Amino acid sequence: MRLSRLLTATTATALVALTVLTGCSRAEESGSAPAASASPAAELRLGYFPNITHAPALIGVDKGLFAQELGSTKLTTQTFNAGPEEVNALLGGSLDAGFIGSSPAINAFAKSNGEAVRLIAGSTSAGAQLVTSPDITSPQQLKGKTIATPQLGNTQDVALKKWLGEQKLEIGQGPDKVTVQNIDNPRTLDLFKKGEVAGGWLPEPWSSRLVDAGAKVLVDEKSLWPDGKFPTTVLIVRTQYLQEHPDTVAALLRGEQKAIDFANSRRDEAKTVANGAIKKLTNSALAPAVLDRAFSELQFDNDPLAATFPQLAKDSVTAGASKTEANLQGFIDVTALNTVREADGKPAVDAAGLDKKQG
């Protein structure tokens, strides 16, 4: 009897061991990622800009739309003035997700060799223009002039330098070249009023602010893209956070969808909410005329316009912001986004093949 019990126990132990080994072997063979946490994250640290191009983020935070969807997950927010700063926070692990420009999003992916971040949704498209003093009516008249962009390598900096190259205009100092200076947007406005810069390739509301100060539109960037659509602001998340807390990321996306619906269906109220949030964060609100013009230039949609990103990666090299074209395979993950869109009765968005890593 005792021998029988011993054999049974030994057999059971062997079966358990065999099951564990078999499971490990299968996991190793499939290369599957660690199992995601079934519980929501304790905290979501979200970054965004106090800028009208980040209206869905401003509305989502101010109206409590993110917090409502996140439930027990604590929402901690941090604002940034430029994309490279936010990239450093994401790569440094002090931020979990962030609304950010398309070029810094690509840079974050490239700097981490395609590992640290994933683009999970769009937010805002269009809303960037080259605005100049009214006496400049053609590209050739930019020779000898100084044109501002918000920061080296940011979305507008890349767009301007690429466009100048297409116009056969050389960047540099001198009467036959165009000087490109990276200047904070508020200072660009001040320098334009003083006549010390001839204009800038700027995102809203700064292009509208310069127009309000007498500038004219020389180039509207949407005229350079099919259907006038190009990603101005997108939503990225740390890859590890996405893997560990998929439910929390889905909640963030539901909150963003509500904020976008609010911005599109209640336009006047959305302008007021976004402007009020900007005032809270910067102590300065937009003038009514600037706010109206800026909002009219923007389109809000969580479609990331994935098909534009290969061109954006090429443009970064053309503009000299990157030495080599970023490999964007695996950059975009719209799995959770499409689930949210389907639940909201919206069509799925296409990842344009950028959701797959090269084998």
Written description of the protein model:
It is a single chain. The chain has 2 domains: 43-126 and 229-343, Periplasmic binding protein-like II (D-Maltodextrin-Binding Protein, domain 2, 3-Layer(aba) Sandwich); 128-228, Periplasmic binding protein-like II (D-Maltodextrin-Binding Protein, domain 2, 3-Layer(aba) Sandwich). The protein has a 6-stranded mixed beta sheet with strand order 2-1-3-10-4-11, with helices on both faces. The chain is globular. Helix content is 45%, strand content 17%. It has helices at 2-30, 55-62, 65-70, 83-91, 102-111, 155-166, 185-193, 206-212, 239-244, 246-265, 267-282, 288-297, 309-318, 335-343; strands at residues 43-48, 74-79, 97-100, 117-126, 128-132, 146-149, 179-182, 199-203, 216-220, 231-238, 298-300. The chain is α/β, with parallel strands linked by helices. The protein contains 14 helices and 11 strands. The termini are far apart.
Features:
359 residues, D-Maltodextrin-Binding Protein, domain 2, 2 domains, five-stranded mixed beta sheet
Describe the secondary-structure layout.
Elements (H helix, E strand, L loop, with lengths): L1 H29 L12 E6 L6 H8 L2 H6 L3 E6 L3 H9 L5 E4 L1 H10 L5 E10 L1 E5 L13 E4 L5 H12 L12 E4 L2 H9 L5 E5 L2 H7 L3 E5 L10 E8 H6 L1 H20 L1 H16 L5 H10 E3 L8 H10 L16 H9 L16
Parallel strand pairs: 1-2, 1-3, 6-7, 6-8
Antiparallel strand pairs: 3-10, 4-10, 4-11, 5-8, 5-9
